[in-house]
Amino acid sequence: MLKLERLAQGLIGPARDPLAPDTRAHTLLVGLLAWAGLGASGLSSVSYGPERAYLALGAHPQLGVFLALATLLTVWVLSLAYRQVVELFPSGGGNYKIVSELLGPRFGLVAGCALLVDYVLTISVCLASGTDALFSLLPVAFQSHKLTVEIGLGLLLILVNLRGIADSIRLLLPLTLGFVLVHVGLIVYGVASKAADLTGTLARSTTQTLALSGDIGWPLLMALFLRAYSLGGSTYTGPEAIANNVNLLAEPRVRTGRTTLLSVGFPLAFMAGGMILLYSLWGAQPTYGQTLNAVVFKSVIEQLGIAPGVGHGLLLLTLALEGGIVFVAANAILIFAPSLLGNMAADSWLPHRFCNLSNRLVKQNGVVFVGVCALLILLLSRGSLGMLVVLYSINVFLSLALAKAGLCRHWWQHRREGPWLGRILVAATGFCVASGILLVTLTEKFFEGGWVTLCLTLLVIGGCAVVRHHYARVEALRTQMDTEFTLPAQVLATVTRIEPSPQAPTAVILATEHWGAAIHTLLWVQRLFPNRFTHVLFVGIVKVEGQVWGRIDGVQQRKTRLDESMDQLEAFCAQAGLSSTRRIGYGTDPVAELQKLLGEATRHYPGCVCFSNKLILQNSWGFSEWLHNQTPLLLQRQLHLDGIPLVILPLKLNGAGHKSVMA
After folding, report:
1. CA-to-CA distance for 555 and 425, rounded, in angstroms?
2. Which CATH superfamily is domain 2-448 in?
3. What is the pLDDT of residues 25-49, one digit of tens each?
4. Which of 31, 60, 150, 395 has the fewest beta carbons under 10 Å from its own?
C-alpha cells in the first residue's frame, strides 16, 4: 500500500493545503498561462475546422474566399458577445450558468448536458485530429497504428491533468506558442506571395459564384455554402471555453478574462480565415494520408526558396506543432469539463462526488470520467476523424444559442438601468449566428450521424433528471428529520451543558449539517448500548469543494451551518443527561480528514467507539448506494487498517415519523 501511495505521489505530485493563502494563487491562470490554457481549445480548431469547411465546398472552391471572410467575422462577433458573459458572470460557469440563471434550471440542464456531450466529443476529435497530423509525417504503412497512439496519448493527458491545472498548462505552453507563431508566419507569407493575384482571385470567385447561382439557383447555392460554413463550426467555439472558466483566472478576473478573449479571438479569427484563404489561393487538393494543411504548407514552404532539407524540417515542425496543439486542446477540455461537472453536481443534476477535489485540488472524478468516455468513443468510432466531426459541434451551438437568448432577455429586462441597445444587438447577433449554424448543422448532419448526438444528449438529460429527483427527495426527507429533532432557540440558549470527564465512556459520532441523522445514530447507540456511554464526541468536516475553494465566505458559510448543527446536537445531549464536545476539520478529502480526527479521538479517549450511519431508501434498487454512503464505507475500511473499529448503523428514510424508528 505504501509503495502504491509513493508511486501515485510521484506521478501526480504531493498534496496541497487548500487553506494555505498561497495555494490558490499558485493554481490560478494569468498572462500566457491563461491565454494558452483557455485559448488552446479554440486555437487548435485551425488544425481541422477550416479543412472540413473547405472540403465541403467540393467542386466549388470559388466560394472559399467568401467562406474565409464569413469565418473571420463569425469568430470575432462571438468573441465580442462573450465579453458580456465575462462581465456578468465573473465567477465562471459559462453557458450552463448563464442559461440556468437567465432562462431557468430546466433550460440550464439542456445547455449543461449539451456541453458535456460536446466536451467528450471534442477530446475525441482533438486526439484523432492530432494523431492524423502526426501520422502525416510518416509513411502510409503506419496508418494502422493510429488508434493505439490515440488511446495512449489520451491516457497520458488524463495523468497530466491529475497533477493540476497550472502544471499541465506549463508543460504544454511551448506547443501553443510555437503553433501560433509558425502558422501566422506561414499564412502571412502564403497570402503575401499571392498578393499580385489576390484581386484577380476575388474577381474570378465573384464571377464564378454568380455563374453558379445562375445554374443551380441561389437557394441551392446558399445551402451549399451554409453546409460548408456549419462543418467549420468547431472553429467558432473557442471564445466559449474562456467564458466558461473565468473562475480559473487571476484577479482582476473581468479584465483578465476580457483581455484573454481578445488575445485568443484575434489570432483565431485570423488563422481560421487565413487558412481557408490559403487553400483557395494555392488551389490545395486533398491527398491520401495527409491533411489539407500539410498539403498547402508544403507548397508554401517550397516557395520560400530555402534548402530542401531545411524546408522539410520546417514542414515537419509545422505538422508536429499541429499535432501538438490539438493535444493541448484536449488537455484544455480536461480542465473545462470537470468544472462543468462540478457546477452541475452542485445543483444536484449529477452525483455530488463530481464536486470533490483531490489532494492536488483537482476534480479528479471529472477528469477520469470525461477522459474515459472520450477514449470509449474513440474505440467505438475506430478513431475516424470524419465520423467524429459529424457528431461534433452540434451541441455546442445549442448551448450557445440558449446562452445568447438568455443575454438578450437579460438586457431587455434591464434596459432602463443603463446602456443596453449595443449590448442587446451584440447578443442578438450571436444568437442569430449560433441558432443559424445549429439549424443548418442539424439539417445537414442529422442523417449522417447527427441523430446519434441528439439521442446521446437526450439520454444524458434523462439521467440527470433522475439524479436531481433522487437528491431532492432525499434532501426533503433529511430536512423533515431535522425538523422533528429541532430544539427551539430559547432551549438552545438556556440549556445547561454538562462538563465532560476525560475518563468518561465515549461514543464518537460523525456529524454533518443535518443534525437529525446524528441524533438518529445517537438513539441507535442508546438502544444497542443502554447506559454504556456518558459522553459523546461529535466529529464533522467542512468539505472544501470546487464550488467553495478560494472563497473564504463559502468555507465560512459551511462552517457556520456545521456549527449550528453541532449546537443542536450538544443541546440534545444535555437534555438527555449526556456530556458532549465537538471537533471540526477542514479538507478536500473527507475520508482522509475524518481518519485523522478519529485517530486523534481514540488516543484522547481510550476505549471509545466510533459510529456512523448508512442511508437506507426503500425501492431504490441500489441507486442510492451509488449516489450516497461512500464516505462511511471508505472510512470504515481505512480505520480497520489502522485497527480502529467503526460501527455503521442504518439510517432509514421513508417519509414517516423518524422518531418512531427507534421504538
Report:
1. 39
2. Amino acid/polyamine transporter I (1.20.1740.10)
3. 445 555 677 677 777 777 878 887 8
4. 31
